[in-house]
Specification:
It is built from 7 helices and 11 strands. With 356 residues, the protein is α+β, with helices and mostly antiparallel strands. It folds into 2 domains: 45 residues; 251 residues. Strands 1, 2, 3, 4, 5, 6, 7, 8, 9, 10 and 11 form an 11-stranded antiparallel β-sheet that branches. Helix 1 packs antiparallel against helix 7 and helix 5 runs antiparallel to helix 6.
Amino acid sequence: MTKTRITCAVLGVICLVAAALMAWLVTPKWVARVPSDHTVDRTYEGTFKSLLDPGVLAQGNLQQAIKSNVPLTVVQHVQVDKTSGNKALISDTRTTSAAGAKVEQTKWDYAIDRRSLEAISNHPSDWVVIPAQGLTVSWPFGAEKKNYQGWTPETRTTTPLTYLREEKKQGITTYVYEAKAPSAKIVDDQILAVLPKTLPLALLRQLGQGGALPAGEAAQLAQILPQLPESVPLAYTFQDDSTFWVDPSTGLVIDVHRTQQRVAGIALPTGTAVPLLPVAVAAYQDTAASSQKAADEARHGRTVIRWLGVYLPIILLAVGVVLVLLALLLRGRRRPAAAAPSDVPPTGGGAHMDQV
């Protein structure tokens, strides 16, 4: 009985400790974080409401260079390349196509915290990453109803991610956030590499006189034309208005609707720019299949987190309590005492001799 009681007590305590460790240490520290083999693939579709073709522009054909209502596709691939403890080197690759033809490909590498998903600076020295700030590729596990800071790689600036509301998306109760990145100078070399760096002065005159510019920009251009060189340097700005639907448990983005604009301007010696015309005005969102895939991944991740962080600890807690109570009950039971020997002599036990 003593061995049984001790065994129940030991196993009960082990279950209680295991429940606490699973709920408050193992799941938050090792389960609810970006896995070392993490990959995300998303596809977005929409329209280039306006798109400048640099190749046609270089031929001097301004009217044909500006295209309207061009089908747009963006394919995004995010993956963890390396890990070091709670730090991860993660890459975000995006390929943009217009009417099926690739027009741009970018790859941004970030060092992030695997739990908060925030960009970090204290990473291994051999990691070559963008010195980003805030959230870069997704929201954290256990996203909250609060505002975050998001990273805009085109301009290398941060943008508030404002919490708006709860909303159902693909059967999941999501948190909806909004990002409004104001117009800022594009500094990313990958994007600038596919945009014209200069514009011939003659083509610029044609642009001002051909009615392609609004009246205000045309008047401003007419004033500065006499001061410009034969090859006019260009600068570009980027503006973004996006809405994100986020699964709060895993931080995965279930859907996103984006409206983005890139504007070309004349780069003045003062460092400022005079806006000319949009080179890309785009609106796009997750495809139905991509959004459904994100929802399925979120459900799987949520199930793993709940089983390891909630259900399993509850089961271990219940088993532990039962075993400890059983040990206490066994301790309260006493083995019955052995019967004392009798003092009464046995009857008819003496021998006698018959007489003849």
